[in-house]
Amino acid sequence: MTEIPRGSLPQATFFELVGGEETFRRLVHRFYQGVADDPELRALYPEEDLGPAEERLTLFLMQYWGGPRTYSDERGHPRLRMRHVPFTVNRAAHDAWLRHMRDAVDELALEPAYEKQLWDYLVYAAASMVNTPG
Ligand code: HEM
To answer: Residue of the nearest CA to atom 32 in ligand 1?
Structure first.
């Protein structure tokens, strides 16, 4: 059994605070609707069916924010920059990705402090994925 020191409470994770799996599923589902309707960005995604990509991003974000570790059980260490190397992530792709993510975040209507935490992370992570100038 895990011991909980007297006078302290187990900390809720960000994953739990924003509504758990359902919230991340809504976020990423909405994001991929945007991708599906954006021919330029859509062209980067190799699979005809966006469903598996949606599942991978959902599981990754759930794990990142303290939820179940299913992503790594299925895919191993994230190494996201390396996994993006096969794709041309230039400024335009970065901007489009973030634009669809912004719409998806807006629709969650989270408390402002949580929304900011999530958004700041996504902005930072998207910048770190750019691998092609121009
Ligand atoms: C900056 C713009 C980005 C573009 C254009 C982009 C594009 C892509 C593409 C084309 C794939 C392959 C689809 C698939 O097979 O899963 C992919 C996979 C993935 N992306 Fe991105 N991505 C971007 C940013 C991000 C960011 C910021 C994150 C995390 C916060 C992320 C997380 C992932 C994950 C988890 C996968 C699946 C990796 C795997 O397990 O194979 N991506 N991305």
So the answer is: 57
Domain with 120, as residue range(s), is 15-129
Which of 64, 84, 130, when mutated, tests ligand 1's pocket best, judged by the most ligand atoms within 8 Å of its CB? 84
Q: What is the pTM of this model?
A: 0.94
- Structural domain total, the chain: 1
The structure tokens listed for 86 are 């096969």
Mean pLDDT per 10-residue run, the chain (134 residues)?
71 96 98 98 97 98 98 98 97 98 98 98 98 92
Exposure of 29 by Cβ count < 10 A (0-12 exposed, 13-18 middle, 19+ buried)? Answer: middle
